Amino acid sequence: MSIVHVSGRFDGKTALVTGAASGVGRATALRLAAEGANVYALDVNAEALAETADLAAGLPGKLVTRVTDVSSRDECFAAVAAAVAEFGGLDVLGNIAGIARAEHVLEVTEADYRRMMGVNIDGYFFLCQAAIPHLLERSGNIVNIASNAGVMGLAYSVVYTMTKGAVVQLTRSLAWEFIKTPLRVNAIAPGGIETNLVANYRIPEDVDWELVGRATTPRPMAQAEDIASMFCYVASDEARNVHGAILSNDTGLTAG
To answer: Band of the pLDDT at 46, cuts 50, 70, 90?
Structure first.
């Protein structure tokens, strides 16, 4: 696909991006750096995160990596502090890291439940909590990656849909709490994306496939770059009037 960068759109800006080792997180980190942003890139996967740094070599913006488990409050706060120390401030927080599983609800283990909640909810909340004081100083903004699963029910994905519903309400509630300030808070709700997350998504063999089919449309899945493109618009000054929005990017899945 052809990608058109907006040269200099993020010159002088700093963005912290989670999930930057692959998929939407990597695509977004690279797109921001290509458009001039200094990017503080987080992920738990050190090897893949180093690959992202290699791909960013030569781009206008500087990309610095940090291995971080976003399910840890202490690591979230430490990462934000390190980003501010590295670049002198923070303009954009991109909460992108996420995990997904398909399973019968009666078979969900406590460990799997806690891990998904930790990455998909705790990380988003604690990074927002740590970043907001710095974002307020620079009239910055937050872009959360939610999902079509946050606005509709999906069979065999109960815990995942719970977490993405929480991201939707986190976004709306923060937007209202800070509506009298320059801070903007928005979310993007993708459908299926051709990433490792989707490629490794395993559905139990004994499901009702008619119910599973409700989560698809006849149109092809998005590419990670499609979401990165929308992210960069929403995070930019061009979207100064966009606040508290849950922006669908799902090939029409939630249209009817």
So the answer is: very high
pTM above 0.70, yes or no: yes
Report the distance separating Cα 190 and Cα 226, nearest Å: 9
Instruction: State how far the alpha carbon of 121 is from the alpha carbons of 116, 166, 218, 220, in Å.
Output: 8, 7, 30, 28
Q: Which two tokens stand for residue 120?
A: 């998909």
Catalytic residues, by residue number, are: 160
| Residue 5, pLDDT score | 84
- CATH fold, domain 14-249, is Rossmann fold (3.40.50)
Which tops the pLDDT comparison, 36 or 206? 36
